[in-house]
Structures are given as structure tokens and as C-alpha cells.
Design goal:
The chain is α+β, with helices and mostly antiparallel strands and 476 residues long. It folds into 2 domains: 5-115, Glutaredoxin, CATH 3.40.30; 147-473, no CATH class. The protein is built from 16 helices and 20 strands. The strands form 6 sheets. Strands 12, 13, 14, 15, 18, 19 and 20 form a 7-stranded mixed sheet that branches.
Length: 476
């Protein structure tokens, strides 16, 4: 708690602090003044300054620059001035005629408590007690990377050791309290606090700015609608696919263009990976255990990408689920590995949609219909065909669903010499059977500007026992 009255924070290694030393003497003569000095316990001379060379007071009172003058009542700050500005110092202190021979204004210097070379150690010293996660002590000769592998905290690739300093720095990416429970993660239904998510975000290689996206993704994955327990337990190769919309895509420099579904972008790679590590390390789902996928796919390491809203002819993906364009959002879709649809000749929308429908018809199996889902990622060169023709996303989706419908006789069990198929009665032979329900075919716009390709990501089972698309607004 600060003493009541006027309180100043200064350091000798600041020209403005040296400049206002006589002003501080003026204030001390006419008011109650306490001076805290950050570097030299004798500065300013004659004012009996309080020693703050450990920066404890500066840290706890969030001093960003020196000189800073505070007005304190009953131990609580009621006003603050940064730097030297005569009229503001006079107004705050109630003392007139301050520094009449000095310039009217001079900027201050950065506080030592926010010095990048000191800030991590100060955060650890004064905020380390905020963390409740178990500390793991390593032997002096123990390699920290190998130790993490041995303890099973990785996805098979090296991770960033989650030291206290790194976790505290990660928590600076959100205003949420570290002990706030974000979700209970299946199968163990273990509570994932903001702190626990931050630990796994460090492991994944995230930057603090990514943390709000990871938190939103964890919340979305652990809803009953997304059903992450079922996603992990199925023998199919399903995994959460994250699509990010809103201005945050650009703020985080996420990739929505060339190589969008591949390597090379830190935000894309580490955000998806952080979600998977939370599922593993907090929820307890691991390959061979609760994760029963027969083959899995590389997206199990993490799959996250941004939609190319600027290049898209259509409204953002998140608006399909009720959010407004311009909102920061992450949408989770349960999907398998991506596959290309190649059509380098179609220049008319009718021809191109038939190619896309042909690719979509093979999702999981040409005779599996109705119960599954799919995401179609339209590339820019294919998108231009629909843009030039004036087709809306809704129009494209409607026409795809029409083109995908097949008569019952073609998808029933045994048709085409294949036992796989739907158990349809004979009277359904001429009934059009939809490949997907309308709400289970999703269209996103992304990819590089060169190449007449689009990509299909097959989904998983829908309905009460499957997984539904879930969108979450990203909050700081």
C-alpha cells in the first residue's frame, strides 16, 4: 500500500527526472511527498527517497514511465501523471508555480520495471505465486527435452519447456484470470483452467497473442455439440479442424493463402497443436488409449487455418452460424485429412460444380450418404469462376447438393457389386438420396492464388451421437 499524499517514482538515469528534482523539492516543502527511486537510493538528494531498487513498488503499482507523480488517498491511487507537464503536475498537486524556469513539458523515460531485460524476472518474482500447476524438478544432468518426452507430455515432436516465466508471459495474452476454468476436458473431465491452457500453449510454441484463440477453441471442443470425447474415441481418423475469422487473423499474421493447410506459419501450426495438447495432457486422451483412430492423419497434431475474407466473393464462414462479419471467431469442424479436387479446364460454374460434386461424392465411400459431413475449401482460381458468374455461396451449396443426390438403387447395399451401402427398401430405388444434409456441407474460401484446385475435408458422423460444427467468438 502506498502512503497517502503525493508519491513520485524516479530514477537518476533519466534526464527528465534530474530536470524535475527541484520541482520535487518544491512539492516536499508544501505538501506530503514520498519519493521512490529505482536505481540510486540517494537520488534526489535531500529528499530522503525510499529505496525501490528491487522494483517491488514500481511493479505492483504498474509504473510504466518515470517520472510518475501519483495522488494517493487512504492508500489508493486517485490520479496519475506520466513525465513532466507543468499544468498537470500543478493540477494534481494543488501547488502553483512549479518549475517556473523549466520547459512546460518533457517526456519521461521507461520505468525499469518494464525494461524488457528485467520484466520476465520481475514477473516471475512477483507473480509466480499466481500459478497453481505442479512444479516438476529436473536433475542437474537431465535433458529437459528428453525429460518431457519421457513424461509423455508431447505429441511426438519436441515442445517448448513450460517454465514459470514462459507461462506467466503467455498469460499476458489474456485478461482472464489464471484459475478460471475454461472447460472440463474429456475423457477424464479434468478442469482446464486458463493457466493449464497457457501451459499447453507454451508447449505448442504459441505466442501470448495466440492464447485467446486457443482458449476459444478449447471451449468449443469441449461442448456436447462438438463431442470431443466421441471424436477421439471413434476408429475413424477424425480431428478438430479450426477455421479462424475476423481481424485477429491479420493481427496474428495467420496464413489464409499459399500453403494454407501446410507448414510454415507459426500461428496456424501452434494454435491447432495447443488444442491437441490440451486434449492429451489435460483430458488424458492418447493414441492407443481413448484415442482409438485406426489410421489417424497429420491433422491430429493440429490443424488450424484462417479464411481469406479479403479475397472471398462470399460472406465469412462464421456468419453461417450466426456471428456477424468482422467478429473474431474460431469455428471447429471434425474432419479427416484434406484431398485435392483438380479441375483445370472448367471456366463455367455448371461444369466446375460437377467436378466438385464428383470429388465430394467419394467422401468416405460413394455409397455412404446422409449421416456424414464435409468441408469444401474453395481455392481462388476456382472461386473466380463462381464470382464472375455472380453465384452466391448459398447458390453454390444448393446446386452441389442437387448434383450429389443419387437414386436409391445406386447407393443401396449390394449395388454395383459392393456390400457397402444404405439399407434401403426396394420402393426407394428411384428416390433421390442426398449425399449430405444441407447443414452438414460447409464452404470456406482459402488457398494460394495460383492453381486450379480446391480441397475437400471429409467430416465425421453428424447427429446426436456425432459431432456438430461449433463456433466461438474470440475474447481477450
Amino acid at each position: 500500500m502506498l502512503p497517502s499524499g503525493l508519491v513520485a517514482f524516479v530514477k537518476r538515469d533519466c534526464p527528465t527526472c534530474v530536470l524535475v528534482a527541484p520541482v520535487l523539492a518544491q512539492l516536499a516543502a508544501q505538501a506530503k511527498l514520498t519519493v521512490f527511486t529505482q536505481d540510486d537510493p540517494t537520488f534526489p538528494e535531500g529528499l530522503s527517497p525510499e529505496d525501490d531498487t528491487d522494483l517491488a513498488r514500481s511493479w505492483h503499482h504498474q509504473i510504466e514511465a518515470v517520472p510518475t507523480l501519483l495522488q494517493v488517498e487512504d492508500g489508493h491511487e486517485v490520479a496519475r501523471v506520466l513525465g513532466w507537464q507543468r499544468d498537470e503536475w500543478e493540477q494534481l498537486s494543488g501547488v502553483r508555480g512549479l518549475g517556473s524556469t523549466l520547459p512546460d513539458w518533457r517526456p519521461g523515460c521507461g520505468s525499469l520495471s518494464v525494461d524488457p531485460t528485467r520484466e520476465p524476472a520481475l514477473r516471475l518474482r512477483y507473480e509466480g505465486s499466481r500459478l497453481h500447476s505442479r512444479r516438476v524438478e529436473l536433475a542437474p544432468l537431465e535433458d529437459e527435452y528428453e525429460a518431457i518426452f519421457e513424461r509423455g507430455w508431447t505429441d511426438g515432436l519436441p515442445v517448448v519447456p513450460p517454465t514459470e516465466a514462459r507461462v506467466l508471459a503467455m498469460l499476458q495474452g489474456t485478461t482472464r484470470e489464471p484459475d478460471e476454468v475454461v472447460a472440463r476436458v474429456p475423457p477424464d473431465l479434468a478442469p482446464a483452467s486458463v493457466e493449464k491452457v497457457a501451459v499447453n500453449a507454451v508447449l505448442a510454441g504459441c505466442k501470448p497473442d495466440y492464447l485467446p484463440v486457443v482458449l476459444a477453441a478449447v471451449e468449443a471442443a469441449c461442448t456436447d455439440a462438438f463431442n470431443i470425447h466421441g471424436v477421439q474415441a471413434t476408429t475413424m481418423g477424425a480431428a478438430p479442424i479450426l477455421v479462424v475469422n475476423g481481424p485477429i487473423r491479420r493481427a496474428l499474421q495467420m496464413n489464409s493463402g499459399q500453403g494454407v493447410l501446410g507448414m510454415g506459419n507459426r500461428a496456424n501450426a501452434s494454435i491447432g497443436r495447443a488444442l491437441q495438447l490440451v486434449i492429451r495432457n489435460v483430458g488424458g486422451s492418447r493414441p492407443g488409449g481413448t484415442d482409438r483412430s485406426t489410421f489417424a492423419h497429420p491433422g491430429k497434431l493440429g490443424m488450424c487455418f484462417a479464411e481469406d475474407e479479403e479475397g472471398s466473393p462470399w460472406e465469412p464462414f462464421c456468419t453461417d452460424f450466426g456471428l456477424a462479419a468482422g467478429q473474431d471467431a474460431v469455428t471447429l469442424f471434425c474432419g479427416e485429412g484434406p484431398r485435392l479436387v483438380v479441375d483445370q479446364l472448367s471456366r463455367e460454374p455448371e461444369s466446375l460444380l460437377r467436378s466438385l460434386a464428383a470429388g465430394l461424392s467419394a467422401v468416405h465411400h460413394p455409397k455412404i450418404a446422409i449421416a456424414m459431413a464435409a468441408m469444401l475449401v474453395i481455392g481462388p482460381e476456382h472461386g473466380r469462376v463462381f464470382r464472375d458468374a455472380g453465384w452466391s455461396k448459398a447458390q453454390l451449396k444448393t446446386r452441389l447438393l442437387e448434383a450429389l443426390a443419387r437414386p436409391g438403387r445406386e447407393v443401396t447395399r449390394g449395388a454395383g457389386g459392393m456390400a457397402e451401402g444404405l439399407p434401403l427398401p426396394p420402393e426407394a430405388a428411384d428416390t433421390p438420396i442426398p449425399k449430405f444434409r444441407s447443414q452438414n456441407l460447409h464452404i470456406v474460401y482459402a488457398g494460394g492464388g495460383a492453381g486450379l484446385f480446391s480441397t475437400i475435408i471429409g467430416g465425421w458422423l453428424t447427429g446426436p451421437e456425432g459431432s456438430q460444427v461449433v463456433v466461438k467468438e474470440i475474447q481477450a
